[in-house]
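Example for tutorial group B:
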């Protein structure tokens, strides 16, 4: 069947697609550089030390999202909401306050984690070094700032300035530094690699701030207005934070659980398999970076046909890309994982299970983004959080018996159920079909008055 694209949607989809292709170009480069980084680290470190790095990075990633206080998602939504309502000054103020909240929370969590680790290790002996916990603590603030700055700049229409510093500069400098140190005889430990990652990311963020402010983008933190902002939008921010935390936990808790319940070597193997499986969602993620502010803008403006067209484009482009990558994993999973080293080739089964769950993720489209951008963050937390939470509890039971394969199977099953559930909510309650079937809903969508 051939679909004719209406003229009012053609330019919208064309612009969204080309920006998505540019975003994909950056994300493909990012994925390649990230893959190179992990390969370099796994090849220049012992399996045990690489496990420390993977374990610490997972902890830092989760805590960095907590440090963002929901602001990366909030700025995408509030900027579109305020600008559509003609409140440009309020939009800029929200960006600056969000930066302040992120920095303050990042510093607090960094200090709190260091103090907590110091106190706990005075009374509890873990039978291993605890330095990777401190390394993870130093990485919290730069990771949180990188995530927020990227969202704030994308909300204002930037793409290259938003993504290049973290996705390209950082991920180029890190493996180059590790290789340089290795060449002169310096072999990094897991904690060393975490601290080096934090230092290089801080430099990349400084360059990003310089280029962003020189181009007139709002990014400078501001103390004024924090109280008023939090009184008005703090409740929404808390729900957005919970939503972001749930998503991040589902992507990192497995690595932490495997490290605690099996061993750190298995944690490193699972980490590599999960990060490799994540390559399937590259295009979906790249498009979501572009469409998040677009969905918020058109939804709050009442332009439902445009919002539906954008989500349909995201679903199909992301799914077709994911399907090709999934086929590659099915045939060459062992070979792909062997790049990390011979010991990691055993994770092929884990890779396939995780990849199947992510294939369903792509098929249901940008359901999370749609819920967050349209004011349904509480429903997202309740539905997605409950299902993935049950999956996490199942892993506590399964991992001791079935190890990393059991962890992957539980992740796959819970992800499939959760994605189907939130996609159904988008269709029935929001009126946007985020799945592959959404393309058939475009012609039936009816615009409504703008939400002021």
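The residue assignment follows.
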């Amino acid at each position: 069947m051939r679909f004719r694209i209406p003229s009012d949607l053609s330019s919208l989809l064309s612009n969204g697609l080309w920006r998505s292709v540019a975003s994909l170009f950056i994300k493909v480069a990012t994925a390649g550089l990230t893959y190179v980084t992990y390969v370099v680290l796994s090849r220049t470190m012992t399996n045990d030390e690489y496990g420390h790095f993977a374990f610490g990075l997972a902890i830092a990633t989760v805590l960095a999202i907590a440090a963002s206080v929901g602001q990366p998602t909030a700025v995408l939504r509030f900027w579109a909401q305020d600008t559509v309502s003609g409140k440009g000054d309020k939009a800029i103020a929200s960006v600056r306050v969000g930066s302040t909240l992120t920095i303050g929370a990042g510093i607090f969590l960094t200090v709190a984690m260091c103090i907590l680790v110091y106190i706990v290790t005075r009374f509890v002996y873990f039978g291993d070094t605890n330095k990777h916990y401190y390394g993870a603590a130093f990485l919290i603030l730069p990771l949180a700032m990188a995530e927020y700055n990227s969202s704030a700049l994308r909300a204002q229409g930037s793409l290259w300035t938003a993504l290049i510093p973290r996705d390209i500069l950082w991920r180029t400098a890190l493996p180059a530094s590790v290789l340089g140190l290795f060449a002169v005889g310096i072999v990094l430990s897991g904690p060393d690699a975490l601290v080096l990652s934090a230092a290089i990311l801080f430099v990349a963020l400084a360059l990003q701030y310089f280029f962003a402010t020189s181009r007139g983008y709002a990014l400078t933190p501001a103390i004024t207005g924090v109280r008023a902002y939090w009184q008005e939008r703090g409740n929404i921010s808390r729900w957005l934070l919970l939503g972001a935390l749930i998503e991040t936990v589902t992507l990192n808790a497995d690595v932490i659980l495997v490290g605690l319940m099996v061993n750190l070597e298995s944690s490193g193997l699972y980490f590599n398999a999960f990060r490799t499986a994540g390559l399937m969602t590259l295009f979906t993620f790249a498009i979501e970076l572009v469409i998040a502010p677009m969905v918020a803008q058109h939804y709050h403006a009442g332009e439902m046909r445009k919002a539906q067209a954008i989500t349909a484009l995201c679903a199909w482009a992301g799914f077709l890309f994911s399907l090709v990558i999934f086929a590659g994993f099915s045939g060459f999973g062992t070979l792909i994982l062997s790049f990390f080293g011979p010991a990691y080739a055993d994770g092929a089964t884990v890779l396939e299970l995780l990849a199947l769950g992510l294939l369903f993720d792509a098929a249901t489209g940008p359901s999370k983004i749609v819920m967050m951008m349209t004011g349904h963050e509480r429903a997202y937390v309740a539905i997605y959080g409950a299902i993935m939470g049950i999956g996490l509890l199942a892993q506590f039971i399964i991992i001791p018996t079935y190890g990393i394969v059991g962890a992957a199977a539980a992740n796959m099953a819970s992800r499939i159920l959760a994605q189907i559930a939130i996609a159904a909510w988008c269709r029935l309650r929001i009126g946007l079909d985020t799945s592959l079937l959404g393309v058939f809903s475009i012609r039936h969508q009816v615009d409504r008055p703008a939400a002021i």
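DSSP finds 14 helices and no strands in the chain. Compare this with the pattern of hydrophobic and polar residues in the output above.
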